[in-house]
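#structure-requests
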Amino acid sequence: MKLKITNLTKHTGVKVENFDCSKRISSDIFLDIKNLIQEKHFICFKSQSIDEESLVNFTRNFGNLETYPEKDKTKGKIEIFNVSNISSEGIHLNEEDPRVVLQKNNSRWHTDSSYRYYPALFSILYGKEVLPRVASGGQTQFSNMLLAYENLPESKKRLLEPLHQVHSYNDIRRIEPSLPELSYEEKSNFPPVTHPVIRVHPDRQNKKSLFFTSNTSLEIGGMSLKEGRDLHSWLVNYVQNPKFCYTHQWEPNDLIMWDNRVLLHRVIPYNYTKFRRAMIRGTVEGTSPVFGPFSNI
C-alpha cells in the first residue's frame, strides 16, 4: 500500500487519507512516516478510530512513551494525557477547573515537555470531540522554528546564540496561580532545566532553529529580568508570523503527529463554557538533551 499524501503548506505538514493507525504498521510504511515527519514535521491522519489502547500502540512505534507528571490529569493510562474540558465521566467542566486551566495555558506557544532534560520527540493527538466549524477558535496552530531561525536578522541570531531559557513544570503555577500546588514528589520528579534558545539539529546537517516556550516561563536568561522578558515577548510576537505557521482546523477523528524539536504549537482560545473539546495525547520520549551552538555534538 502506498500512502495518499497531500501537502498542507510548502514548509510544514502533510495529510494522509488512506491509512489506519489502529493496525500494525509494515516496515515500509513505518519508514515512509518517519521520513514524512522528518521532512514536513507534521502529519494529519484522517478518519481514524482510536481508543487509549490503540493510541499507545501506535505511539510506541516511534519510541518509549512519556508518563504524565500529574496522575489526576490522565484517564485510564498514565501514558495518555486527557487534553479536554470534559471529565472522564463525560461531564463538561467549568472554566475554573484545574484541568481546564491547563488547557487555557496551552494557548501559549510551547513545545511539549520542554521541562524535561530530554524534551519530547513526537506528540500524537487524537480528536474525539472537536468544535463545530461555526465556533470561533479551537484550532491547533503550529510555527516552524527552522524557518523562524532562517528569517531572523543577523543581529538577533548573534544576540540569541549564547542564551538559555529556564523551563520548569512547577512554574506553570507562576503563570496560572489558580492551579493547586504540586506535591513534593511531583516537584522532585521534574526539577527546573535550562535549554539553549538556539537549537542545533545533528540529524538535519546541524541546522539551527529557535527553541523556547511561553507556557512554563516568560523570560529568557543571561540578561536582566526586564531585558529577558522583553526579548521573550519579542520572540512570541515574531514566531506567529503567518509565513512560519500552519493552523490545523480539526475535523472529527483526526489524528495528528508533530515533531516537538522543530514546531511550537498552541490552541487558539475558544469559549470553554459553551463548547466541548476532548482529545487524548500520547508523547514519545526524547532521547537526547537539546544541543546548542556551543555544545559538544
